[in-house]
Design goal:
alpha+beta, two-stranded antiparallel ribbon, 44% helix, single chain, globular, Phosphorylase Kinase, domain 1, 305 residues, 2 domains, Aminoglycoside 3'-phosphotransferase, Chain: A, domain 2
């Protein structure tokens, strides 16, 4: 049960730090199982940066032990979960931030992937209203990121394979958000999409795996637009109409301001494109650079009419 799946071991190709984490993982799991008096109760699963093991406590209660690769985005995951107290999110039972270990309530493996995308957007829009509570003071502020993004986008070479008008627009929007008081202050998940909402026993759907920031709720929308992309391409309606339907559903159900949400979508998708353009030659990706850039540009245009 402590066998690391080959699909997770393959991530050693990411570099020496991740390979070292994978080498340490079985021993770290054994330490935690012993110290927290847990018994394995299933095979190990994993995401992109963490392993999850179904466990049972000494009283027989079901739980999930999550151990992640230490990285900045996950540094404050435990703080966000503590702050939510299980309201709209998975309940945190115990944490050891030094070892990037969390003991969580056990949820189903069923996520929003099988729901009609608009129905899934309605679920996520409802979670926005619950999760966007005042942020704890320890979190990094979105305004600081926005200021940096504005400068990085503005510095993108003019011959980069994305429309310059969108780059300039995103840079200007990011700079504007960076100086806006409303850009900070609410607890954001930042990666709330179809795969990060799981079915539960005490509630139908609960958010998992936050990468928290102190920020603006309107920042949240973009991941629901760029995920499940093949469905939009294959649908009988146009991709533009599909993106707009998702966007409008999230904004309406989440009680968001459409113009502000639109601006953050443009910033986030152009920032996503910028990040891909920083790849070193020969980098391996599940989605080709050309396809990702096309997706980003399509979303930025679609939300603007």
């Amino acid at each position: 049960m402590l066998v690391v799946p080959p699909s997770f071991l393959a991530y050693a190709a990411r570099g020496a730090q991740f390979a070292a984490f994978l080498d340490r993982l079985p021993g770290l799991l054994r330490e935690l199982l012993d110290e927290w008096e847990l018994t394995p109760d299933g095979e190990m699963a994993h995401g992109f940066c963490a392993a999850v093991l179904a466990v049972r406590a000494t009283d027989g209660a079901a739980a999930a032990l999550k151990v992640g690769w230490p990285h900045p985005e996950a540094e404050h995951e435990h703080l966000a979960l503590q702050h939510w107290h299980g309201d709209g999110a998975v309940r945190l039972l115990r944490a050891d931030p030094r070892r990037s270990a969390l003991l969580l309530e056990r949820l189903s493996t069923a996520d929003l992937a099988d729901l009609w995308d608009v129905e899934a957007c309605e679920v996520v829009g409802g979670l926005y209203r619950r999760l966007h509570v005042p942020a704890p003071p320890q979190l990094r502020r979105l305004s600081s990121d926005a200021a940096r993004w504005g400068e990085e986008l503005a510095a993108l070479p003019r011959d980069a394979p994305v429309p310059r008008r969108l780059v300039d627009q995103a840079a200007a929007l990011a700079r504007g958000f960076a100086s806006d008081e409303a850009t900070d202050g609410r607890l954001l998940h930042t990666d709330l999409h179809y795969g990060n909402v799981l079915a539960g026993d005490r509630e139908p759907w609960l958010a998992i795996d936050p990468k928290p920031l102190s920020g603006d709720p309107h920042f949240e929308v973009a991941p629901m637009l760029w995920n499940r992309w093949p469905e939009l391409v294959a649908a009988p309606r146009s991709v533009r109409d599909g993106v707009r339907l998702r966007f409008e559903t999230l904004v309406d159900v989440g009680g968001l301001d459409e113009e502000r949400a639109r601006g953050w979508v443009v910033v986030r998708v152009l920032r996503l494109a910028w990040g891909r353009l920083q790849d070193p030659p020969g980098a391996r990706r599940r989605t080709s650079t050309e396809e990702l850039l096309t997706r980003c540009v399509t979303i930025a245009k679609a939300v603007q009419g």
